[in-house]
Amino acid sequence: MTLSETLKSNLIDRIDEQEWIDLTTEMVAIGQPNSTNPLDPDIPAGEEEAYALFVAGKLEAMGFEVTKYYSQAKRPNIVGVLRGEGGGPSLMINDHLDTYPAVEPERWDKCDGNPFKATRHGDWIYGRGTSDTRANLAASLLAVKAVLDSDVKLKGDLICCYTVDEEKDGVHGSIYLTKTIGIKADHSITIEPTAWGKGSEHWGMNLSVANSGHCLVRLVVRGIKSHIWRPDTGVNAISEASELVPVINKMAFRHTPSEFPGHTPPCACVVRMTGGLPGEMQFTPDSCELTLAVVGILPGMTIESVVEDISATVAEALTGHESTEFEVAQLPGSLFVSGTEPVPMQEEPNASLSWAYREVLGDAPIPNRKNAFNDTIRFREAGMNAVTFGPGEDGWSPVNESISITKSVAAMKVLALAIPNILGISE
């Protein structure tokens, strides 16, 4: 179905730019920095409770039946359900409650050195969690609010699912909800960054119909310890490992080509490198450990194939280094995340999102595979038609994270049209 012209105008007119700016500004600050949640498995997770309860209150005010699902203390997943009139599919709107950390606040000059102080510069709002993903979550709430304020009677159930622990691959969030609680919907839209064209007159938002996977791998290089006065008698493990870094950065992984390959092909980068022992600066180190982030993982790739490819590459690079040994394995405490199969464009929610996008922006959205992890992966693994669409920039800035006001307003309009079109309207 498609909506009437009157209803389309009604829904679009209910999207208020200043309301979104005000809500985003408030939400960026709530519960921070406690909600920051690094991917590093050796660093404790965040606590999203303060922010989660705020979001729960917004849903309750709109008439949702809200349940708080705790896998860990002070970390509630928020699930709001609005029952439909019957006869329509169910739709889940998803986003996450944690952010990644802001480790160097002094570098956030766009926010006066405070990453959690949302600050506007022209068309952009800066602050940790703007693009990923509190501003996107604000957009989802206001798009839903626009639909409900229009007084349409929806056929299908509308579910708003806001999760903890997304930055650590969803163990206590989307994995807990799907595997332990059994949350389910016919269709799911995760409102995460898919925008492109930053600083350009030509811009848009991809419709990410699939996701790439990722994993963390530990590579240990072993040499022979020697005194620094006689380095020629040993094999410096740090020196040996350093030679491997450019090789790893350029290596290729075995994979089956995909219709949607993702902007980042399967590749690895070194994210940590440690070697040497305190109190032993008079000796060259005999061990150096590298942590590799492998991203762009496509369907069919496995942790075994990734480890084998890295092992083969390192072995070839160390040919002739007879006193150097190495070992490769998945980083303890981390997860292997598989790439997902795409949701066909003719199926929901893609069909309604594409129609709504054309209504608002005049062109069809470009389908793609999202490079990064988000909860879409877990919902797709649970059998849902789960996709990603949102106004944040798909760039994940380490500092001065930002989101476009113009794109956010456009995304809210698209969502406000797509939601009732997916769920169906009772006359």
Task: Please characterize this protein's 3D structure.
- The chain is of the alpha+beta class and 427 residues long.
- The protein has helices at 5-13, 17-29, 49-61, 130-149, 174-181, 237-250, 303-317, 350-361, 376-381, 405-423, and strands spanning 65-72, 75-82, 91-96, 119-121, 124-126, 153-154, 158-163, 187-190, 195-196, 204-205, 207-211, 213-222, 226-227, 267-275, 283-284, 287-297, 325-330, 367-370, 385-388, 402-404, 425-426.
- The strands form seven sheets. It has a six-stranded mixed sheet with strand order 1-2-7-3-8-19, sandwiched between helices. It has a four-stranded antiparallel sheet with strand order 14-16-12-17, with helices on one face. It has a three-stranded antiparallel sheet with strand order 4-5-20.
- Helix 2 (17-29) packs across helix 4 (130-149), helix 4 (130-149) crosses helix 10 (405-423) and helix 6 (237-250) crosses helix 7 (303-317).
- 50% of the residues are buried.
- The mean pLDDT is 96.
